[in-house]
Fold this protein.
Amino acid sequence: MKRALYVLLGLAVAAALWEGYKAVGNPDGTVLFGVRILPRADDLSMPHLWTVLERLGRPELTGGRPVWIVVASACLFTLGITAAGFVIGALIGLLLAVAMERFRIVERGLLPYVILSQTVPLVALAPLVAGWGGTIMPPWAVVSVIAAYLAFFPVAVGMLRGLQSPSASGVELMRSYAAGWWRTLVKLRFPSALPYLFPALRLAGAAAVVGAVVGEISTGTRGGIGRLIIEYSREATSDPAKVYTAMLGAAVLGLVVAGLVSLLELPLMRHRRHVEVVTL
Amino acid sequence: MSAVVVDKVTKTFNRGRTDEVTALSEVDLTVADGELVSLIGPSGCGKSTLLRLIADLIQPSTGTVTVAGQSAGQARKEQAYGIAFQQAGLFEWRTVLRNVELPLELRGLSKRERKARAEEMLTLVGLEDFAGHYPAQLSGGMQQRVAIARALAVQPPLLLMDEPFGALDEMTRERLQSELLGICTQTGTSTVFVTHSISEAVFLSNRVVVMSARPGRITASITVDLPSRDDAGRQSPAFFEKITEVRQALRGTPAAAPPPRASEGAAAGTDAR
Amino acid sequence: MKWTRAVLPPVIVGVLAIVAWELTVSLGRIAPFILPAPSAIWKELVAQRQNVWEAALASGTNALIGLIAGAALGILVAMAASRFKPLTEVSIPFAAVLNALPIIALAPILNNMFESTSSIPRRLVTAIIVFFPVFVNTLRGLREVNPIHQELMRTYAASGWTFSVKVRLPGALPYVFTGLRQASSLAVIAAVVAEYFGGLQTGLGSRITSAAAFTAYPRAWAFVIGACLLGLVFYLTTLLLERLAMPWRTRLIA
């Protein structure tokens, strides 16, 4: 409750800063040594907040659907892609983590690549898998693949840390009960991994949204919010408020995904503490 | 002048709330110059609380604490004591030498003086060869010795120790006890030593102060006078007699020497089993 | 011996993966638009090395400037926030919420607010993305102080300032570097991907998209390799700095 209040407070401060800068800022931006270091404050670059809100209610083009409906349906489309990517990515991450925990040699061979895959901008691959759309899978599935690629990593690393978190005495206790690998996994390792898993899932959720938005843009998939941002930003000179409505949609999408992921953990994590996962 | 005078100190935590706890009730304690006094008692008897009151880490609810003739707060500001805890609490980003230098640094000593003094202290605890190491490279016992060197660095007239050897194995513990005794005799430092090991208390102290819990109070004060404080001393009959005496005092059975009690005479009478 | 045990398995996996990739593509007759062969990518990389180098330099500059600006701001704001408790309590949930948003999508807006022919928008979006991990981790480090250190400094009658300089800041350093490690990779990713959203087209991102648009897939992959190397350089440099700044740490990446 208190947290929500703080977030609203932060939003109010951000809105005040925006309008405040519009009031005092140079309409053509501040140029220092030939570089524009402060943005233009005119209505074309920074429309009033109420203009953006009001734009949501008006039709997209004359006679078309209202903008908010267009934005909302685009968000839903992207939400579907994100969800598919998130589920695939999380499953792959879980399987990888279990495999790495089970076989030391798999961990030795794969973990460096799992970590490497995040230090290098492989999202840059997004335009390259665009060719898969329509040939070996539908275009939206390509975007899901990109989202899944971004989502698997935090889960794999967080889960591996979690599975390895039980103390040696806990493992030895299970051994003294003559429990095999599987029973140890189910009774000891999974429960102790939960506090690591859920923060990792949250990171994965956020990453999947980024993957879906970037993926839509670079593969040119129509119908989603990422594509809408690009389309609307091309109209920025004639209809500046429009691109902000799409931005707003993307922000709401991010929050909805974060909220849904948090709902997952509610029944399981009531009495437990989170462990911060450092992925890199 | 006494090193420490604790006068009718009561300490209550969470005052006025439902979870109010009286950690110490009407405690009097005097530590003479050069004396080594151990505080011993079950968990929750307030021995650590008493030590922290002397260190001015917390303030008494009523009563006064005097350290070397001045208030505890004043003594803290003048670094009139050195302190060591159960955890060494070394600063992992400083080398061993720089850890010992820290209190001197805060006193504003020059770089050269600091280094000379810190090296002297490290020699005292036998770690002069490890000056350039980082704490993470040392064993637990070595870390604790660095912490003691750090406590001694300002050459304080008073040393406060809160179970400093509690986390160490028995062998290391006995070695460090002898080292501590050597240092204290050499420097003439007064010491208040909190422990829950009876043999440790008897071996180290001139006087063992026994405390009981709920509310925390002093129930006995046993003077120890061993023939010698070395391995022979550890095996002397006097040593074992004192251990028995402290153990009985801890259990509440009247010991051979009647403990000085203020208001508990009636309760103690019915206590004999 | 220990060295080979750590290095050998990943090297074997890497070599096997490349061989399998090459064989799958050439034997399976997979079209280059689905997956080009490693040999074809390597040929393009050699042929295009001048272009890759120049594009990497442009993206690297953007990433570096964004990284430095964002990290400096993150550390400063975290230091300010840790001094005032209410500010900490407001900023932590707020940062958590902002972290869930696709910040990279700000790129087109920034292109409008500045001009699409300057490098500022790409650098700005990089700086904003870098800001969060650095801020969150630094703040956590500044708030977590060993209680024994706190008591010790009190027995030394140390002032608030001394406490900050001698205990709080060095204690927070490992956390700062955790943030910087994440940020260094994010900076490169942001600098490359921001170009997908329009704006000035001089870096690796635009080279990848234009090569893909001309269906020159091996060439696009060559630029991706360039991006990977750039990311690696950033990450390893940060690791090196961490090592130099904290000689007391016996292990990296705990």
User: Anything to note?
Assistant: Chain C touches chain A through 68 residues (CB under 8 Å). The CA atoms of residues 181 and 238 of chain C lie 6 Å apart. The domain at 44-245 of chain C is CATH 1.10.3720.10 (MetI-like fold).
